[in-house]
Amino acid sequence: MKEAKKLLLNHKTGCIADCYSGDLNHAWYVLGDICYKLRDFDCAVHSFRKALSEEPNDVHAMWGLGNSYSELSQPKKAAKWFGKALEIEPLNPSITYNYANCLFDLREYKVAIDLYRSIPPGASEFTLARKNMRKARKLLSLR
């Protein structure tokens, strides 16, 4: 991973290496993904933002940005990006689940419950969504 990061990024300029500049959106996204997997979340945020500057409707970059902000314990920023991604792909259960989790962390339990409920039974997130929905209902009843 670290070697791939070195290959993609020109460390003198902070830009994508010339040989990968043909598709800057993709190159920045790949770098963001590498940084995320290396747990360098600040680098991931920077890279996903650069990917979005090249292609503003890149759902995967929005999703990566949301995940990175979640890892940085910034649920409000994460929710913003998951929400934007969900506007483009409203039926994506993974984005829905991640967005609901951010809202759960922000104590917006009613909206989180509605989102968890919308995840279809066949989705890999279904069981966890139901579990989190029960937790949110319990916390909501304690208010």
UniProtKB/TrEMBL annotation:
Listed Pfam families: ANAPC3 (PF12895)
TPR repeats: 25-58, 59-92
Source taxon at top rank: Bacteria
Signal sequence, renumbered to the chain: none
Keyword Cytoplasm: no
Keywords per UniProt: TPR repeat
Name of this chain's protein: Tetratricopeptide repeat protein
